[in-house]
């Protein structure tokens, strides 16, 4: 009886020592509340070990462990200094919003009904529990990045049924430079990515099993993303369209007038509900195309790629292709004018060329083999089109574009690496069969 107990102690002791050291070092250097950091590191180490178990190959586990150690060191640095490239300064706004929430909300009802976005409310809850300290938020953000890794793996495995490809997708995401920065920065991109990839996982589960519970889970998590940033409402709309299209009578076309009418009715009810108001905070002052034009009159930021503002609806329409291209690819080489913008181009701009090209390649080559794959293709296309359109209209500098396009990047990383390789392998196999038959 004693030997298994001794083995368990030998396994737990190193983890316990690491936990105590990380908590002590992090709280001492950053001056964050020790009880908050202690709470974070319990969960951080738990999810790290859980992720390690997903990566069955030894070399993958070693890479991920090294990456975890490096990123954790950068986390402590960023929480203290807040000056890493691409880190942004919006954390100050979220901190102010959270503090205002605490000061203005006298009860739970007033807190929930406050018009601030969901991310600021979550920060306020952390402040309420652990005290108003900004440095601790960096550790909570890092925690969410470990969960994003987990759900990228699970989603890729659900699509491909291949451990190696699922592991590769999660690892590539975790070493992506802008993802590393945003996993250790007081910004809302990582929590949004978490809720998005969770929603995608459950929606794909819904497509496969037609279990209505998965549908509602996917809708709920996608609503959370829109409550953090209204631009993510495109994901909610995509899920609702696909959900209405595949439920009920299978003989009916996805684009039948009846289904489209139901879809429009559901969207109208949702948008005009209290939840809809929370999802459309950034759109509440927009009642017409003129309001959109008025908002676009203000060109801000030293990385702006829009220099002429639309004067009418035709200008807005004509600017859309350019806005889409810039949102998807900026910064481009000719937009580099300083060391800071050079870093942005090297850490993100160069890689965006690969992402956009691979996305184009995926949608061009992907020939669905089953009914579910047809639904997947419509789903992925809708999410990319809706989110890119919405954010391209609301973004005019590449500093902001870099952050916004990360929001659905967990899906893109699955499509452009393991899923694309599966598509190419399938096409190669079919070509060989044709050649053999000849």
Automatic annotation (TrEMBL):
Residues 122-271 form the Glycosyltransferase RgtA/B/C/D-like domain. InterPro entries: RgtA/B/C-like (IPR038731). Its EC number is 2.4.-.-. GO terms for molecular function: glycosyltransferase activity. The chain crosses the membrane at residues 12-30, 62-80, 108-130, 137-160, 180-204, 211-242, 254-275, 320-337, 375-394. Keywords: Glycosyltransferase, Membrane, Transferase, Transmembrane, Transmembrane helix. This is Glycosyltransferase family 39 protein. It comes from Neobacillus citreus.
